[in-house]
């Protein structure tokens, strides 16, 4: 039996956690002592906050990826220049 079968797979655990969180949130909304309007406003506010956090994380991630891409490109350029310089140094004089 494979490790994934023995452990039930990590994806199943994450899915179960998310499903439990969603059910818990739904129950909390149903038993909360707030009016429907207040609850909808709270849900909308939280959704906007979550979206804003996600967009900020994506912007930061894009910045990190761009910086890494530039760093790798520069490293390849330096390596290519060194290789070309080394090839010129080892060419026999004509």
What does this entry look like structurally?
It is a single chain. The protein is mostly helical and 94 residues long. The protein has one domain. It is built from three helices and no strands. The longest helix is centred in the last third of the chain and has 55 residues. It is elongated.
Short descriptors:
94 residues; mainly alpha; 3 helices; 87% helix; 0% strand; disordered N terminus
The shape, in one word, is elongated
The total count of helices amounts to 3
Separation, N- and C-terminal Cα atoms: 67 Å
| Main sheet attributes: strand count, strand direction, barrel closure | none
Class by helix and strand content? mainly alpha
Beta fraction of the residues? Answer: under 5%
- The helicity comes to over 70%
Compute the average pLDDT.
81
Return residue spans where pLDDT drops below 50 for at least 5 consecutive residues.
1-5
Number of domains: 1
What order do the helices and strands follow? HHH
Output the radius of gyration: 27 Å
DSSP strand count: 0
Set out the fold topology.
Blueprint: H1 3-7, H2 10-31, H3 36-90
Summarize the structure.
It is built from three helices and no strands.
């Amino acid at each position: 039996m494979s490790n994934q079968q023995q452990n039930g797979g990590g994806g199943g655990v994450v899915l179960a956690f998310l499903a439990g969180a969603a059910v818990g949130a739904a129950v909390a909304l149903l038993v909360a002592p707030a009016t429907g309007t207040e609850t909808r406003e709270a849900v909308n506010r939280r959704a906007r906050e979550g979206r804003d956090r996600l967009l900020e994380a994506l912007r930061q991630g894009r910045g990190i990826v761009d910086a890494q891409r530039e760093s790798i490109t520069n490293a390849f350029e330096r390596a290519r220049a060194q290789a070309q310089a080394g090839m010129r140094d080892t060419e026999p004089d004509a």
